[in-house]
Amino acid sequence: MRTDVLVIGGGPAGLAAAISAKKNGADVLLIERESRLGGILKQCIHDGFGLVRFQEKLSGPEYAERFIEEFHNLKIPAMVQTFVTDLKKTEEGFLATVVNAKGVETIEAKSMVLATGCRERTAKQVFIHGTRPAGVFTAGTAQHFINLMGELPTKRCVILGSGDIGLIMARRLTLEGAEVVGVYEVKPTPSGLTRNIHQCLHDYDIPLYLSHTVTRVFGHDRLTGVEVAKVDDHMRPIAGTEQRIDCDALILSVGLIPENELSERLGVQLDPRTKGPKCDASLMTSVPGVFSCGNALHVNDLVDYVSESGETAGAGAAAYAAAEKKSQRALVPMEAGDGCLYIVPQALDLGADNSGTTIYFRSRNIVEKSIFRIRSGDRVIFEKKYPFLRPPEMEKLTVDLSSLTAADSLTAEVEVV
User: Fold this and answer.
1) Do residues 286 and 271 touch, judged by C-beta distance below 8 A?
2) Residue 106's closest CA among 29, 35, 38, 39?
3) For the chain, how long is the longest CA-to-CA vector?
């Protein structure tokens, strides 16, 4: 099989990328490992999606359906229940080996978009002591049980982590009749969006315990309880503060990790701050012809921004596939400096139109009255004042960076004023 643009991942980012690439004149093929398109949105039955893009309050399936319908109207082919087993860079482009019910197939593509999303951290990755009893779930797994399978996985639970999925599941479990003893967060500040703290916890009288963590689980075949403790400024448990809580489930909402095993296989450079590929403004990675978008690039707060990045990557992949001669990029690096947790993109191509560059960033700390600034040495290229910045809430900007030269090296910083 041959195609111009191969999109790997059929969630909101992959759907937007495929639609964008098709509208920009490319032949497109999309690969999805599940049986249905839509990604994680299929199980997100709460509302709040589409406020930026459609100015409507949609559920996850409703949001996904709008893209799935357009995808099918454009007659873009999709291979579902298909897994990528190998990726190689060739002289003509890329060669993907996939496996599905039909067997093993190879696909040649001139460019590709990696829209593989992200995965949840597990109990193993947060070092909780104890055995491995049934009843320890990630928040996404608990959501799958309730929303797709119609099964209630707990009657009395503790939630570790105040990420958005955990907050939403605190409300969902309560509505289904389970008792949520509390949400325990190791950091001194919540990790989720402010609106979710209010709508999911405060509105349902679910307590939030900051600077607390789960240090141990009890039970052999099934979880019977957990041990929680206060933590110090270095997030280490404080001796003597341990407390046992009887429960039949521990729900983990302890962070998301971009899925980039395929990126690493192609030799794509990853940013240790975002855990996703380093890219330019077109979302092309360090490997020419490979584009990344959505939560595989960096974890987004809103699906609206996931779709937006998919459109950018799809358009870039279509342009790369159509170019008869692949020109070398002249890149100006951009890195996160003081007060800035991360910035995307991490480089800008001097050969591109940088007059309306989209930038995403997060502050390192909670700050009031601050200035976000992009500078090259002592020269300030852009700055904007903010009354309030929080790390869990990503900021998006459109910046004119058309004045860049090869001598520039950009640094983004957040200064408290």
Assistant:
1) no
2) 29
3) 68
Give the CA distances from residue 372 to residues 181, 369, 386, in Å, rounded to whole numbers and listed in that order: 39, 10, 7
Say if strands 395-399 and 357-363 run parallel, antiparallel, or are unpaired.
antiparallel
Sign of CA dihedral 122, 124, 125, 126: positive
* Pick from 297, 384, 218: nearest CA to 16: 297
In 3-state terms, what secondary structure has residue 28? strand
Give CA separation, 66 vs 15, 106, 157, 375, in Å: 10, 30, 35, 40
Is-contact 361 371, C-beta < 8 A? no
**C-alpha–C-alpha distance, residues 237 and 228, integer Å:** 9
Q: Check residue 123 and give its pLDDT.
A: 64
Residue 127, pLDDT score: 65
Amino acid (one-letter) located at 280: D
Q: What per-residue confidence (pLDDT) applies to 132?
A: 80
Question: How far are the Cα atoms of 193, 268, 348 from residue 7, in angstroms, in the given order?
Answer: 30, 16, 23
Alpha-helix runs per DSSP H in 190-338: 194-196, 261-265, 303-322
Query: How far, in Å, are 153, 233, 256, 292, 300 from residue 186 at the CA level?
Result: 24, 10, 16, 31, 21
